[in-house]
Each structure stands twice: as C-alpha cells, then as structure tokens.
C-alpha cells in the first residue's frame, strides 16, 4: 500500500516533514503577502500523516495512476500546505512554492485541478468537496478499485448544507472507501465557529448521519496516525475523523489571538521569522509509532 | 397547445422522452456513462436509463447541489456523468456547483434541464426554467443545446455524450411538433436551415422553431419570404449563419421560450451588432414570470406565439400590420 519513498516510520521523521510543510506555508503566504497560513498549521499533522506515513497510496512518478488514493482539500484556502506536501513528495519543485498567487503561476490562491498534478478537485467555494469525494468513491466502486478517497473539511465549512447532503449520500451508498476529516480548529472568518453557527454536537451528528465517527486530538501523532489507519479499514460505511486542532498551531502570535484576526492574513516578514524560529525550536515528540 | 397545427406538423414525443430513450440506447455503447438523479428521474426520463443500467444510476435525493458535485466526482474518475433535474432547480439551485465542479474544471459532465420554458403550463412559474440558458451560457466553455423536436433531442443527446467536456441541454415537458426526420443530421454549433428565405430570418430554438415555421407560412401569403434557422446550439453560436442571415435577408427576429435576458436573442444580437448590424426583433419572455394555466394559454398570454413572431417580422419589414413599436427601456 505504502509508497516506499514516502513512508516514514518514526514520529520524529514525520514531525520533521510536518515542520517543513508548516514553515513553507508561512514563507509562501508571507512572500505572497496574502493567503491563509493559520489554517494550514491546524491541519499540518493530518496532511503530513496522509502523504508521508504510508496512509495514502500514490506514486509521485505517476501522479495520474488510476488506482491512486484521492485527496480532496475541500477547505481550499489551505492550498499552501497542499502545495508544500506535493513539493515534499517530489511532485512540485520546492522553488516553485514561492510563486504562490503570482500571475502566471499554477499555484493559485485555491487549488486548481486543471493546473497542478495530484490536485484532485478544484476547491475554494466551501461545501462541495465531500460531494465530489462521494462521486470519486462511487467511481472507485464502479472500477472495482480498492482506492480510498480522503476529504479534508473545515469546521466552519460544515455550515454549508451541501456537506450534509453528501453525508447522507455517502451513508446511503455505504462508501467505506470514503474518509472525511474535519479540521475542527474552532474558528471561521467572523470568529468563534460555534458563535457564528453552532455545528455541534459534531460527533453525534455524523453518527446520526450513518458515519463511523472517530474523535482525536489533531496534533497528537499517535492519535492522528491511529485514526487514519483505522479509517482505511473498510467497515461497510464511510468514516469521519473529527480532529480537534488549533488554528495557528505552533505559532504563539496566532494562538495568542482569540479574536481570529489572523484569519486569511499572512504573517509579516519579521513575524514570520519569529514563527519559523519557534517551530524549529519546539521540542520533538518522542513517541514511537 | 396547438403548436404547428396551422401548417399540419404532426405532434411527436416530448423532447424529454427522446432524451431518456437516447440515453438508454447510448448506455451500451458507452460503458462509462453514468447518471445521477435528484428524485425526478421519472420526470426527466433518466429512469429509462436506470431501468436498463441500474448499477450505473445513482439516486441522491432532492439535493441538486450534491447531485452536481457527485457527478463531477464521477467525471473525475473517468466517467461520462449525466445529471438531470428540472431546468429551474438544476441551473438555479446548483449554479455554484456547476461553476466550480463542471465549468471551472472542464469536467465531462452533461447537465440536462427538463421542464424548460413556460409550456409546462399548469404547475406554474416555480417549476418553469426561463433563465437556464442565460445561466448556463455564463459558464465559460459550456455548450448550451436546445432541441426543437424529439428527433433533434435524440441526435443532440448522442452528440452531447460524445463531446468531451461540459454540456447543458434543455428539454421540455409537452409533446412537440415533428420537424425533422428521425435520422436528422445535426452538428453542435451549426445552425439548421429549416426553411429557406430571402426577406427576413427567424432564428429560433426549442418549440419556437415550429412557431417560426407557422409564422413563415403565414407571411409567405403576404409576400414575405422568411428564412427559418433552428439555432439548437445557443452556445457556441453559429455566427456565420447569423452573419449570412443579416447580409442576405436584412432583418432578424429571434424566438425562444426563455427570458429575453441572456438567452438566444441576446447572443444573436451580440453577433449581429459586432459583425453584421441589421434590424432585429425579439420574441421571448419579457422581464416577467409567467403563471399557471394550460400550456397554450400560457404561451399565448406571454407572447410566445407564431403570431407574435409574424408581427415582429412585419414591423421590421415596414409592413404596417406589425403592431406597435415595443416599449422603450428594458
């Protein structure tokens, strides 16, 4: 299942990858003077685990391999960390990342599947990714393929009714190759997600919609890895992982701001240097997988 | 509704029926053809395909947004994904999903909107698709089709499925007059000349093609020789045919079962203004919603008749009986 070159076996290795992706997300958005670094940080463990812990089946040399697992970034504003993951996987050149959001670059503000290999869906209008994932999972079934489809959703995105239309369809068709991950970082554009529109109790809601539901700490490596590994198992119905996360994980400047003023705001160059130094200096987790 | 009766056109099957049967017939030739329904397959006639290929038919319930995005996901997996609902619900409810998942991605999704226009009659304006061609024309790269009769619907369905990329086709609820032989040869983007003429041209689509033929018949008796073009492809428009009509006949009237805003008339007017300016007239739903009623009564009350087309031609040709100038101001 795993891709040999991208299958890290130690948490220390994975954490090193995660930090590269986090730092790249900050550098890219700071250089572009626009974009959403904080939402990239909240999903950095999830994205790293999917691409680099052998939890997604893909071949960087053959990005259009039919039986590759699919990853849909439904919260398309986290595009920088997706691009960074594709660079880490060897699908995009690292140097290109700094072209984010510049005219002529294929690294647009939100992912464009027509321009970037292994970007599986064009997203950025929230609420549509899970439905696309349902269609992809149905296609996988018709092709008698064992491929999995992973969809990363924001928690604010769950305000969109279409997500729940898709949830019903996924359960109806018993799509056990479909995995949704909710990056529950608790904030959306206008502030506290539960103040803007309460979506809880989230796990109970997904369960009521017929999904196998796992709740994890989205920054705890064993929990993230364990839940994704469990989600790969086909159990006759789709799986959702509700990952409790922090918007701006690892960066005190962002975490210290309860007002969410960093939503969609890049760090200034001096702030970025402080943030990167903080990420680099953080102690490594010591757990073994 | 007595469309075509004045010139003895026989009544044929509704275009939605022809679409459903054609889709079923194509199912064998295209093993990657799949259909996604939003609980109206017995109205849109995709149920005919479902009966033949149940394993390739997906029912997602009354949820057009999800329906379109699921189709986009199936298309990403290499399928020709057909998804159909009432034109109004498909194009209005799921517009953003069409924009993002079909247009922006160039997905191989075929959108079919039934119950287009006001000729559905009884069910009333909430069910009438009168803005669908405008909305779908506003999607970059979208092909917009509007068949005039059952044979055209069969042919355009086949062309739509064979085309690689986004297509929208509208179909209608009522039986419509037969214009074409069963084996009519149409091509996407090529207007069909259904009547030759030199004094004026009526460019029509859908059920208004038969109305245009009736108008041409009546005008012939007055010495006005009218060309009739079936513009079954509203986008991309056959600009050459429009240009030829302008140069060779000097006057163009468009006729469509759609709002005047953003539909066939708007597209033809843009081509005329840019390439071959000539006087124009417009028949369509004019800045209003229609109402419940028998289809013929609704069409008559909202001005979608052969008489209205004939009046517009007379006005452009200075044949006094053309009634009054249309009111100023849009």
Rg from Cα of chain B: 19 Å
Total domain units of chain B: 2
**What is the CATH class name of the largest domain in chain B?**
Alpha Beta
List segments of chain A where confidence is low: pLDDT < 50 over at least 5 consecutive residues.
1-5
Q: Round the mean pLDDT of chain A to the nearest integer and report it.
A: 95
Give the strand line-up of the largest sheet of chain B: 3-2-4-5-7-6-12
Fourth-tier CATH superfamily name of the largest domain in chain B: Thiamin diphosphate (ThDP)-binding fold, Pyr/PP domains
Side by side, the strands of the main sheet of chain A go 1-2-3-7-6
Mean pLDDT of chain B: 96
Tell me the count of domains of chain A.
Answer: 1
H-E string of chain A: HHHEHHEHEEEHHEHEHH
Largest sheet of chain B: 7 strands, mixed
What is the strand tally of chain B?
Answer: 14
Distance between the termini of chain B: 29 Å
Task: List the total number of helices of chain B.
Answer: 13
| Helix content estimate of chain A | 25-40%
Helix/strand structural class of chain A: alpha/beta
């Amino acid at each position: 299942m795993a891709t040999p070159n991208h299958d890290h076996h130690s948490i220390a290795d994975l954490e090193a990858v995660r930090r590269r992706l986090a730092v790249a997300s900050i550098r890219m958005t700071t250089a572009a003077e626009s974009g959403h670094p904080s939402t990239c940080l909240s999903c950095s463990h999830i994205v790293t685990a999917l691409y680099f812990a052998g939890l997604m089946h893909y071949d960087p040399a053959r990005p259009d391999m039919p039986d590759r697992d699919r990853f849909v970034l439904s919260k398309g504003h986290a595009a920088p960390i997706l691009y960074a993951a594709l660079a880490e996987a060897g699908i995009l050149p690292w140097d290109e990342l700094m072209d984010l959001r510049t005219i002529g670059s294929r690294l647009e503000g939100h992912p464009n599947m027509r321009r970037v290999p292994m970007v599986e869906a064009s997203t950025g209008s929230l609420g549509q990714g899970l439905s696309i994932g349902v269609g992809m999972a149905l296609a996988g079934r018709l092709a008698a393929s064992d491929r999995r489809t992973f969809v990363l959703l924001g928690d604010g995105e769950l305000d969109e009714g279409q997500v729940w239309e898709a949830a019903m369809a996924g359960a109806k068709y018993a799509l056990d190759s479909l995995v949704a991950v909710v990056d529950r970082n608790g904030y959306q554009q206008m502030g506290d997600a539960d103040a803007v529109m309460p979506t809880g109790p989230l796990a109970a809601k997904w369960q009521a919609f017929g999904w196998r539901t796992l709740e994890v700490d989205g920054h705890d490596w064993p929990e993230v890895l364990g839940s994704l590994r469990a989600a790969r198992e086909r159990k006759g119905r789709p799986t959702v992982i509700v990952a409790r996360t922090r918007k701006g994980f690892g960066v005190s400047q962002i975490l210290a701001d309860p007002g969410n003023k960093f939503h969609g705001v890049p760090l200034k160059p001096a702030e970025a240097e402080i943030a990167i130094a903080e990420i680099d200096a953080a102690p490594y987790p010591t757990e073994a997988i | 509704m007595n469309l075509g009766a004045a010139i003895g056109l026989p009544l044929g099957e509704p275009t939605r029926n022809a679409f459903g049967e054609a889709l079923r017939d194509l199912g064998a030739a295209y093993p990657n053809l799949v259909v996604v329904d939003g609980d109206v397959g017995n109205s849109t006639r995709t149920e005919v395909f479902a009966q033949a290929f149940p394993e390739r038919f997906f029912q997602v319930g009354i949820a057009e947004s999800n329906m379109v995005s699921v189709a986009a996901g199936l298309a990403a997996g290499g399928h020709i994904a057909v998804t159909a609902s009432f034109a109004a619900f498909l194009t209005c409810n799921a517009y953003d999903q069409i924009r993002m998942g079909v247009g922006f991605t160039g997905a191989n999704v075929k959108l079919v909107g039934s119950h287009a226009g006001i000729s559905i009659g009884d069910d009333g304006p909430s069910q009438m698709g009168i803005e669908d061609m405008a909305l779908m024309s506003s999607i970059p790269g979208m092909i917009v089709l509007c068949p005039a009769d059952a044979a055209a619907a069969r042919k355009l369905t086949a062309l739509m499925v064979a085309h690689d990329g986004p297509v929208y086709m509208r179909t209608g609820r009522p039986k419509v007059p037969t214009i074409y032989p069963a084996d009519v040869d149409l091509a996407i983007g090529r207007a069909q000349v259904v009547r030759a003429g030199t004094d004026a041209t009526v460019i029509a689509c859908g059920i208004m093609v038969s109305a245009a033929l009736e108008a041409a018949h009546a005008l012939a008796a007055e010495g006005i020789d009218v060309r009739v073009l079936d513009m079954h492809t509203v986008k991309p428009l056959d600009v050459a045919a429009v240009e030829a009509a302008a140069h060779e006949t000097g006057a163009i009237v468009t006729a469509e079962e759609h709002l005047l805003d953003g539909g066939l008339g708007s597209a033809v007017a843009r081509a005329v203004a840019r390439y071959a300016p000539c006087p124009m007239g417009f028949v369509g739903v004019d800045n209003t919603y229609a109402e419940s009623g028998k289809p013929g009564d609704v069409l008559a009350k909202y001005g979608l008749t052969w008489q209205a087309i004939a009046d517009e031609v007379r006005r452009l040709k200075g044949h006094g009986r053309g009634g009054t100038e249309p009111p100023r101001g849009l």
